[in-house]
Amino acid sequence: MENRKKEIIAYFREMDRSYFMDANKDLASLDHALPIGFEQTISQPSLVLEMTLALDLQSHHKVLEVGTGSGFQTTLLAVFSGAVYTIERIEELHNRAKERLAQLNIHNIHFKLGDGSIGWQEQAPFDRIMVTAAASEVPAELLDQLSNDGKMVIPVGNSFNQELLLIEKDTNGKLHKISLNKVLFVPLKGKYEI
Q1: Closest to 168 (Cα-Cα) out of 144, 147, 152, 181
Q2: Is the dihedral of CA 154, 123, 61, 150 positive or negative?
Q3: Which of 16, 149, 154, 175 has its CA 20 to 30 A from that of 22?
Q4: What is the pLDDT of residues 99-124, one digit of tens each?
């Protein structure tokens, strides 16, 4: 596991964040969330790494990502898992991310345009779930779509006070929640909007 962590960190450090941005490219090296249009952001790099490492990704994992955004997080998930199923509700961001990732020759990503807060039932269960926007509560649909022995990272709270949660489902289907950090993400739109 320690080697895996080192591989993810090394790959992450080589990633060119500016590639995933259409504006503010000169600010890409800053450890801040930055706007990507449509009231959405590309997340703070250190937080992207923290969330990815918390999932403990393995090469056979099937991952659901809620909120494709720029495709920055999607790329990291795809390189270190078996397959990524990513959902974006904003068509222009969805299309741009598809184009970017095709140019990077990453082919284990499945894209969907829609409400990610209800997951992707047809493709469930998922070994890992990454939610990149804050929900008012943990969506029941996502918990249902998380496999036993699975992990989910999700920011939960309101517009001013959010907690980054790691939710683990054990082999018997029992849930365990761990608070990782205080965070501030854009709101998850759809059924679980804050």
Answers
A1: 152
A2: positive
A3: 154
A4: 999 999 999 999 999 999 999 999 99
How far apart are the C-alpha atoms of 66 and 88, rounded to whole Å?
A: 7
Q: Roughly how many angstroms between the first and final C-alpha of the chain, as a whole number?
A: 35
Helical residues (DSSP H) of the chain, grouped into ranges? 2-14, 45-54, 72-79, 91-103, 140-145
- Residues 2-18 pLDDT 10s: 788 999 999 999 999 99
Catalytic annotation, pick one of 18, 29, 43, 147: 43
Burial class for 180, CB neighbours closer than 10 Å (0-12, 13-18, 19+): middle
Rounded distance between C-alpha atoms, residue 90 and residue 97, angstroms: 11
Task: Note whether 93 and 113 are within 8 A (CB).
Answer: no
Our answer to whether residue 159 is catalytic in this structure is no
| Beta-strand relationship, 175-183 and 62-66 | unpaired
